[in-house]
Amino acid sequence: MAELHIIGQIVGGSGFPQSSLFCKWGVHAGGAWRLLSGLKEGQTQVDIPQTGDTAYWSHPIDLHYATKGLNSCSTSGVPIIPHILDIEIKTVVVV
């Protein structure tokens, strides 16, 4: 069985006209992947920046997936990249 651990955080968001922001997020894996631990979706707290337009959340992400074979990696949409990833979240919601 192959396993994948995703550990990181949603740092923040900027570029929105309102300053009170939170983020609803979700991870979508292919059907061959089974979530063993962690939450595949969630929501950050609200941040209202005092200066600037960047809302900071520092929301932790800690997921553990498993699949029965490595052949499913190429069809499941899970990237294998051996260094730090910056993921842009586009589902920021204005409160």
Automatic annotation (TrEMBL):
It comes from the Eukaryota. It is found in: Cytoplasm, Cytoskeleton, Cilium basal body. InterPro entries: C2_B9-type_dom. The keyword Acetylation does not apply. GO terms for cellular component: MKS complex. GO terms for biological process: cilium assembly. The keyword Iron-sulfur does not apply. Its main location: cytoplasm. Keywords: Cell projection, Cilium biogenesis/degradation, Cytoplasm, Cytoskeleton. It holds the Pfam family B9-C2. Belongs to the B9D family. Component of the tectonic-like complex, a complex localized at the transition zone of primary cilia and acting as a barrier that prevents diffusion of transmembrane proteins between the cilia and plasma membranes. This is B9 domain-containing protein 2. It comes from Mola mola.
